[in-house]
Design goal:
Layout: E1 7-12, E2 17-22, H1 29-42, E3 47-51, H2 60-70, E4 76-81, E5 87-92, E6 103-107, H3 114-124, E7 129-132, E8 140-146, E9 152-161, E10 177-178, H4 183-194, H5 201-208, H6 216-233
Parallel strand pairs: 2-3, 3-6, 6-7, 7-10
Antiparallel strand pairs: 1-2, 4-5, 4-9, 8-9
Length: 234
């Protein structure tokens, strides 16, 4: 049995800017995120970049648990509504804010479903600024109805709605600060994010066939956090 961690990469630099790349939402994700953030805070984290690029989603319950870490108690995270707008359930933060540091979230077209719920809630509630590209737009709930022959019928039975009543389905989430990335550079950045950070530029080029390129979306997030830090310190 192979268990894949939800946290792909987590660092904090000399200026106290933390970075956490979350690649999926599973039953263990919230615990993994809490543990990682606790470790980053012990290393001096004062602000955070939450990278949800290429995170295609996962469990709704995990998305709610992760959002709960960053939000004050009793804030609406997402609503599930059925046909004719019938409200099936509202999901609210329950723990109280565990992480209050300034936050920027990175998105791209590969961010979908649970990722969009978390990022959308943060944006609507004013908890974080979003940087990158428009997300995928997956906001529907599918239910499988078993049939007598052993097959099943999958139907869309409900939709997810953000705290302001908007839906992400087939629309996606527009970032607060758009930083576009070409398909070619996106492929290279994916390889860089999952590569060995200890490689020298020469070793990297020999292995991958190209020189490391700057991550402009991440750089913009760091810039926004630095501006916010300077504004609050004046």
């Amino acid at each position: 049995e192979i268990e894949i961690s939800s946290v792909e990469n987590a660092t904090v630099d000399e200026n106290g800017t933390g970075y956490l790349h979350l690649i999926q939402f599973t039953e263990r994700t919230a615990l993994e995120v809490e543990g990682t953030l606790s470790e980053l805070k012990s290393k001096g984290m004062k602000r955070l970049i939450l990278d949800l690029r290429d995170n295609s989603g996962g469990l709704l319950s995990a998305a709610i648990e992760v959002a709960d870490i960053f939000l004050e108690k009793d804030r609406l995270i997402v609503s599930v509504k059925g046909r004719k707008g019938l409200s099936l359930r509202d999901f609210r933060s329950a723990k109280g804010q565990l992480i209050s540091e300034p936050l920027v979230v990175l998105l791209n077209e590969g961010s979908a479903s649970a990722s969009e719920i978390v990022a959308g809630a943060f944006s609507v509630l004013g908890r974080a600024r979003l940087v990158g590209e428009q997300s995928y737009g997956k906001g529907s709930v599918q239910t499988i109805f078993p049939l007598s022959d052993g097959s099943g019928l999958r139907l869309t039975t409900a939709m997810y709605f953000l705290p302001d009543g908007s839906t992400i389905h087939e629309q996606g989430i527009e970032p607060d600060v758009e930083v576009l990335c070409s398909d070619a550079n996106e492929t290279k950045l994916r390889m860089q994010r999952y590569g060995d950070p200890s490689l020298s530029s020469r070793e990297f080029e020999e292995l991958f066939g190209f020189s490391p390129i700057p991550d402009l979306q991440k750089s913009k997030a760091m810039e926004l956090l630095a501006i916010e830090l300077n504004a609050t310190s004046q």
